[in-house]
Design a protein that fits this description.
This protein is mainly alpha-helical. The protein has 14 helices and 4 strands. This is GntR family transcriptional regulator.
Length: 344
């Protein structure tokens, strides 16, 4: 239950940031519950609750049989930095926990990039073809990918979803409202770090990343004592994979039981993945991971062009390994924050 509530908050803040950044305007197509669930690799439930919370807070209107409609207009009211203020203390805690690790992660990731990857990242950050905030997000994400650490990428995705709206609100207040100046400084630090790596000046690159970490502290102004009293301060909760695998394990156990009961006998085929996803109220990605578990256990086998065939009924030798991971991760979980805006 704790993990599911954390998923709801993560999805809520992610979508709210999309709206506040202007990725969706009145009349634009908003992602469906199924698309949102697939993006975060969770069941439909937390995605649906996140959408309903957006409706309750006045950002979208939900209608049966239609995608959500954006009703919030940024120029209709002057908002205080509420998202930032109610998360100031937890942002301070996150910063203090990550400020010593983040530069090392970035340095390691950048060092593992080849010349072509570094050139592409440098071009992305130096170009003004995309909004600067999007380019910076993509740059931070790309600097971690070479490490091929799933848990680290989950952590980055979830922290970004939590911090995102606070970042947008904070931008309105720094440098007399000129938040783009602050982002330009972030871009400068990152570009300097990349160019040092290209010259194999790793110590200088690390110093640039350390300075960037220190700049974030000033950017968020953690030392200010003003705390928002309008709503209860919000907490950040995170655990590895946040229960995502639990859905796969539970469904796999249920399917094995049905195979033993003869609902899906040996040599028969399981229903198609999308149908099973609808039956169990989970995303297609979650169901694909479940089928992978059955394949790994030797209970089922994918037959190209036909479907998933039951090849073994299961017995006491079958168990669900909670540490199981096939090493694959759907790229959709790591899509950039603006990607939903392409579904219009």
């Amino acid at each position: 239950m704790v993990a599911e509530k954390s998923q709801q908050r993560m999805i809520y803040h992610f979508l709210l940031r999309q709206i506040k950044m202007g990725n969706y305007k009145s009349g634009d197509r908003f992602p469906t519950v199924k698309e949102i669930a697939g993006h975060f690799n969770v069941s439909y439930c937390p995605a649906q609750i996140a959408l309903k919370t957006l409706e309750k807070d006045g950002y979208v209107r939900l209608s049966k049989g239609r995608t959500a409609e954006i009703i919030w207009q940024p120029d209709e009211k002057t908002e205080e930095a509420l998202d930032f203020e109610e998360r100031r203390e937890v942002l301070r805690d996150l910063y203090e926990g990550l400020c010593h690790l983040s530069p090392l992660f970035r340095l390691q990731g950048l060092s593992l990039m080849d010349k072509e990857q570094l050139a592409e990242l440098e071009q992305l950050l130096a170009s003004d073809q995309e909004p600067l905030l999007f380019s910076l997000y993509k740059g931070f994400e790309d600097s971690l990918k070479p490490m091929k650490n799933q848990m680290l990428m989950y952590l980055f995705t979830d922290i970004d979803a939590f911090v995102g709206t606070a970042l947008v609100d904070r931008m309105k207040r720094v440098n007399d409202g000129q938040g783009d100046r602050a982002l330009e400084k972030v871009r400068k630090y990152l570009l300097n770090a990349i160019r040092c790596i290209k010259k194999q000046e790793y110590k200088n690159s690390f110093e640039q990343l350390l300075e960037l970490s220190g700049y974030f502290k000033d950017f968020f102004d953690f030392d200010q004592k003003e705390i928002c009293q309008k709503r209860e301060a919000e907490a950040f909760s995170w655990e590895p994979q946040k229960g995502r695998k639990r859905y796969c394990d539970d469904i796999a156990i249920d399917l094995i039981c049905k195979i033993n009961q003869g609902v899906y006998p040996v040599d028969s085929y399981l229903p198609q993945g999308r149908l099973l996803a609808d039956i169990y109220h989970v995303s297609p990605i979650t169901m694909r991971r479940t089928i992978n578990i059955l394949n790994e256990l030797g209970v089922a086998k994918n037959i190209n062009g036909i479907g998933t065939k039951v090849i073994f009924p299961g017995d006491q030798t079958i168990y669900i390994n909670e540490g199981y991971d096939n090493g694959q991760k759907s790229d959709s979980v790591f899509r950039s924050p603006a990607d939903f805006s392409h579904h219009r």
